TrEMBL record:
The lineage of its organism: Bacteria, Pseudomonadati, Bacteroidota, Cytophagia, Cytophagales. The chain crosses the membrane at residues 12-33, 53-73, 94-118. Keywords: Membrane, Transmembrane, Transmembrane helix. It comes from Hymenobacter actinosclerus. This is Uncharacterized protein.
Length: 124
């Protein structure tokens, strides 16, 4: 595989979208469970287990690490500096700033969660 193909904006955008889709899917599991059952105690147990702050923080940190190493850094630090002059970088710049927004958004979410200003209860 050509090493320069890993720096393509499309591949980096796919990594960012996959991380976002995985986080959204994980967040939706208790809601999907609620649709298929009437067991309130089981749902409460799932909520306590599935959306505990430490687990959410670990998932967000892992997603940030994957996006950082597979999307943000390859766009910010290309393999060869001369490649910055080869083609218009509008797409690469756009995807890079989307990655930055992802990092800042998850950092803000973690700060609000850690400060106690945000409570994890999407079913309420």
């Amino acid at each position: 595989m050509d090493r320069h193909s890993t720096n393509s904006p499309g591949r980096c955008l796919a990594v960012l979208l996959a991380a976002g889709a995985l986080l959204w899917t994980i967040w939706q599991v208790p809601g999907w469970y609620r649709l298929g059952t009437t067991d309130a105690a089981g749902l409460a147990m799932l909520m306590r287990l599935w959306q505990q702050p430490l687990l959410v923080a670990l998932l967000l940190a892992a997603a940030n690490a994957v996006v950082l190493y597979r999307a943000t850094l390859p766009l910010a630090l290309p393999d060869a500096p001369a490649t910055l002059l080869d083609r218009p970088r509008h797409q690469a710049d756009f995807v890079f700033w989307l990655c930055v927004v992802f990092h800042l958004g998850t950092l803000l979410f973690l700060l609000l969660l850690g400060a106690g200003w945000l409570h994890l209860n999407p079913l309420a």
